[in-house]
């Protein structure tokens, strides 16, 4: 399939909405109506109510080879769809209907449904990087340690009731139960020396810029820079973690003396015992984990004026 560079080239589009996401059920009907009214040639529309149904539906829609697939849901839903669309040339439209919506934040896609639909109907197509963790896709951040505990403490009911504030509540619960761990970071390309770390709170590998409901991976992180940003936070007294937490929004926490930070294109994370890995809010694999970045892998629709990503084309991949 020849990649599109403009939404005006769309001849066939499909919509898949995760109705189990925070705003999915209420948005599924209006979203399809708005997109059709904006002139998009929607050939099929699906509102999916369960995780078991979501994967097969997305796989079937991608196999239909539409020019555009619009996906509504949280970051986990969108990342799964991006993994299926990577390398196909089909463009991804994003309706941020989850709790954190960090990909939308990175790509400057508005949270209001009508505005997000307007971006899809009149936007431009860019290509962004896709992270892989043991080949499983992620767009924002993959992590081990405290964040896994946070994900486990985040019930759907809590997210629907209080929205992004649920992350703070879940973090307090997870912090109280967290046990420090040891890890080794290996760099197959030889761009960094092997790093042995102990007494860890968390290790994260960022492909995008934002995660966790608006935190920033690092001041220089981007979803179009063909690099993975890695940070490791060491365990410390509570007062130090409070200081680090205050610096998460702008990414300046990487300068704290209890944080290691570096950038690379490939890294292998090994822990003493297998540990779960959180990929954009979903527990999807475990350590040891090989992380890579697929350059310019996913074509996505963004607003005409955004500078968050560009269309580099396959020659830059």
Q: Would you kindly provide a brief summary of this structure?
A:
This protein has nine helices and 17 strands.
List the helices and strands and how they pair.
Blueprint: E1 13-18, H1 24-37, E2 42-48, H2 51-63, E3 68-73, H3 75-85, E4 91-96, H4 102-106, H5 113-122, E5 124-133, E6 136-138, E7 141-145, H6 146-153, H7 156-162, H8 165-177, E8 181-186, E9 195-206, E10 210-211, E11 215-216, E12 228-234, H9 238-246, E13 259-264, E14 266-271, E15 276-279, E16 282-286, E17 289-302
Helix pairs in contact: 1-5, 2-3, 6-8
Average residue-wise pLDDT? 92
Note the beta-strand portion: 25-35%
The dominant shape is globular
Largest sheet: 15 strands, mixed
Distance between the amino and carboxyl termini = 17 Å
Description:
With 317 residues, the protein is an alpha+beta fold. It contains nine helices and 17 strands. The strands form two sheets. It has a 15-stranded mixed sheet that branches. Helix 1 runs parallel beside helix 5 (113-122), helix 2 packs parallel to helix 3 (75-85) and helix 6 packs across helix 8 (165-177). It is globular.
Main traits of this protein?
317 residues, single chain, 15-stranded mixed beta sheet, alpha+beta
């Amino acid at each position: 399939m020849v990649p599109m560079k403009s939404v005006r080239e769309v001849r066939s589009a499909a919509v898949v909405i995760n109705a189990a996401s925070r705003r999915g059920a209420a948005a599924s009907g209006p979203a399809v109506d708005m997109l059709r009214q904006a002139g998009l040639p929607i050939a099929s529309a699906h509102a999916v109510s369960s995780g078991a149904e979501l994967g097969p539906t997305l796989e079937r829609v991608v196999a239909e080879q539409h020019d555009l697939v619009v996906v509504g849901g949280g970051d986990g839903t969108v990342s799964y769809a991006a993994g299926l669309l990577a390398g196909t040339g089909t463009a991804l439209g994003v309706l941020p209907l989850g709790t954190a919506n960090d990909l939308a934040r990175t790509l400057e896609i508005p949270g209001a449904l009508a505005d997000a639909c307007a971006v899809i109907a009149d936007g431009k197509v860019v290509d962004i990087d896709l992270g892989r963790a043991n080949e499983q896709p992620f767009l924002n951040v993959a992590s081990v340690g405290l964040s896994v505990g946070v994900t486990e403490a985040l019930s759907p009911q809590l997210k629907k009731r209080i929205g992004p504030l649920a992350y703070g509540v879940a973090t307090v619960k997870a912090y109280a139960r967290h046990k420090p761990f040891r890890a080794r970071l290996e760099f197959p390309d030889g761009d960094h020396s092997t790093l042995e770390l102990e007494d860890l709170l968390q290790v994260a590998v960022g492909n995008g810029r934002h995660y966790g409901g608006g935190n920033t991976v690092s001041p220089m992180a981007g979803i179009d820079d063909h690099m993975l940003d890695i940070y490791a936070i060491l365990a410390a007294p509570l007062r130090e973690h409070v200081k680090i937490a205050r610096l998460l929004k702008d990414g300046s926490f990487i300068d704290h003396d209890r944080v290691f930070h570096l950038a690379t294109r490939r890294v292998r994370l090994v822990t003493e015992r297998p540990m779960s890995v959180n990929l954009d809010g979903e527990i999807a694999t475990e350590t040891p984990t090989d992380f890579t970045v697929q350059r310019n892998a996913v074509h996505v629709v963004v607003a005409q004026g955004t500078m968050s990503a560009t269309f580099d084309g396959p020659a830059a991949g």
